[in-house]
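Project standup — Tuesday

K.O.: blocked on the structure for the chain from last sprint. Re-posting the sequence here as requested.
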Amino acid sequence: MRREEKAHLAKVLWPLPFLLVACAGTRHLSRDRAAEILGGAPFFSEGYREIEVVVGPRAVFEPGEMEEYQVLEKLGLVSIGRSELVSTIEVTKLGRERVSRSQATASELHKRYFFRVAQRKLVTVTGVATGEQGQAQVEFTWTWKPINEIGRSLRADATTYQAMTRFRLFDDGWRIEGTIAEPSATNPTGRRVEVCMGFHGSTSCGTASGLSEASALRAARQNACAQIASGVTDAISCEQTQPTRITWLN
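H.V.: unblocked you, prediction finished:
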């Protein structure tokens, strides 16, 4: 081969090793790349923690619920009228300007308001298991990061939660294919509870999981009352009664 031909061939082939490395790089799912993709997923970008406020007279509060209301009261977002038997919760004008959303009910007396306090934040990707046919399972940890003075004023939740999801390799790179496992299903610190409620002569039990005792109790109470209450107003009244039995399942 003449010197001129060798020189031309070298010019043509010199980028090939770099192209092969770049191609291999797109097919390999590193922890850093998985973290970059996860960070833009709705699980994090739209994953907010909220405080739910039910206005009106309250005789029963879940563990930790009154502490949340007192933080909101200190910030001027709710008012708490206290009497010997009940506490009456109201959302102030400032509070109504700060709510992320509200839920109408049959009675304005029991309207629900929601305040955002924290957002999910990725801590680290703990493992990537690449399988056949361009699939991978990614495990990671995350925590709640306060996003405003409400979140910063609440008792800090330093818990690190575990989760996992599936990735698939497409022609343009890796994408999240599966749903992200709920924290209560993968996190050993999550709570699961069965709550039995009695209302208007009927009894029903509901089971639920939550990241805290308060959230698990609230969800299980709602599940139980949904089976025996007729209409939104009755459901709220049922949820505010004392449970007949509480059984922690973990």
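K.O.: great, moving the ticket to review. DSSP finds ten helices and twelve strands in the chain. Confidence is low (pLDDT under 50) at residues 16-25, 184-188.
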